[in-house]
């Protein structure tokens, strides 16, 4: 099976939302308080994602050659990774690695970025550590109760 990578356009917002919400329900929400779910899922609605794409936020996509979307990495302000999901049955095949490389190099090329930030889910912390990110401080709890690990990466 071959994987193709490209940048999203507004027409991709519906499938991105479906993937993001499905993976979030499976891997992120079980570790979070119930109050955190509605606002988190709302930010993954097609309407919100379309708006973000139209505002210039960069959604890097991974597609299977059968036409299924299998991964997304979204970068805001060429420095903050804010949505990073791979479909469950394709975990462990290097798709997140490729998406991160593409999103990172795109931001470096566009803006000369040297520092990247993100708020990690518990399950993704080991993957980000493997990419070279380090914790920026203690766990952070948002107003809705969402618990995340802020992390950053400084390029040499
Ligand atoms: C986190 C996630 C995107 C990773 O996707 P993936 O495609 O399975 O990741 P990859 O196969 O590309 O693995 C990335 C690298 O991390 C390494 N890795 C994976 N799990 C690891 C672990 N537990 N400990 C150390 N390294 C690990 C892999 O070996 C791989 O190394 P490489 O880049 O040298 O090959 C995926 O598990 C996911 O969608 N999780 C649920 C949603 C989520 O939590 N997203 C993050 C939101 S902040």
How many domains? The number is 1
Instruction: Determine the CATH topology.
Output: Aminopeptidase
> How large is the share of residues in beta strands?
25-35%
Bound molecules: coenzyme A
For the largest beta-sheet, the strand count, sense and barrel status come to: 8 strands, mixed
| Low-pLDDT residue spans | none
Alpha-carbon Rg, integer:
15 Å
**Shape call:** globular
Structural class: alpha+beta
Describe the structure.
The protein has 156 residues and is an alpha+beta fold. The protein has a single domain, classed as Aminopeptidase (3-Layer(aba) Sandwich), CATH 3.40.630.30. 35% of the residues lie in helices and 29% in strands. The chain is built from five helices and eight strands; from the N terminus they run E-H-H-H-E-E-E-H-E-H-E-E-E. Strands 1, 2, 3, 4, 5, 6, 7 and 8 form an eight-stranded mixed beta sheet that branches. Helix 4 (95-111) links the parallel strand 4 and strand 5. Helix 1 (13-27) crosses helix 3 (46-54). It is globular and about 40 Å long. The termini are far apart. The relative contact order is 0.17. The model has no long low-confidence stretch (mean pLDDT 97). Coenzyme A binds at residues 23, 27-28, 84-86, 91-97, 120-121, 123-124, 126-127, 130.
Layout of secondary structure:
Elements: E1 3-7, H1 13-27, H2 37-42, H3 46-54, E2 58-64, E3 69-76, E4 80-86, H4 95-111, E5 115-120, H5 125-131, E6 134-135, E7 140-141, E8 147-154
Parallel strand pairs: 4-5
Antiparallel strand pairs: 1-2, 2-3, 3-4, 5-8, 6-8, 7-8
Helix pairs in contact: 1-3
The protein binds coenzyme A (COA).
Coenzyme A binds next to helix 1, strand 4, helix 4 and helix 5.
């Amino acid at each position: 099976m071959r994987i193709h990578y490209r940048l999203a356009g507004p027409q991709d917002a519906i499938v991105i939302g479906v993937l993001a919400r499905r993976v979030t329900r499976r891997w992120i929400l079980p570790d979070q308080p119930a109050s955190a779910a509605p606002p988190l899922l709302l930010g993954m609605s097609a309407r919100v994602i379309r708006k973000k794409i139209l505002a210039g936020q960069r959604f890097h996509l991974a597609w299977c050659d059968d036409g299924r979307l299998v991964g997304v990495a979204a970068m805001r302000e060429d420095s903050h990774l804010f949505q990073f999901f791979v479909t469950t049955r394709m975990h462990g095949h290097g798709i997140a690695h490729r998406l991160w490389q593409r999103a990172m190099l795109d931001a470096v090329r566009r803006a000369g970025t040297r520092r990247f930030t993100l708020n990690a889910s518990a399950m993704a912390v080991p993957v980000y550590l493997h990419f070279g990110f380090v914790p920026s401080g203690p766990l952070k709890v948002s107003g809705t109760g969402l618990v995340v690990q802020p992390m950053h990466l400084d390029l040499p």
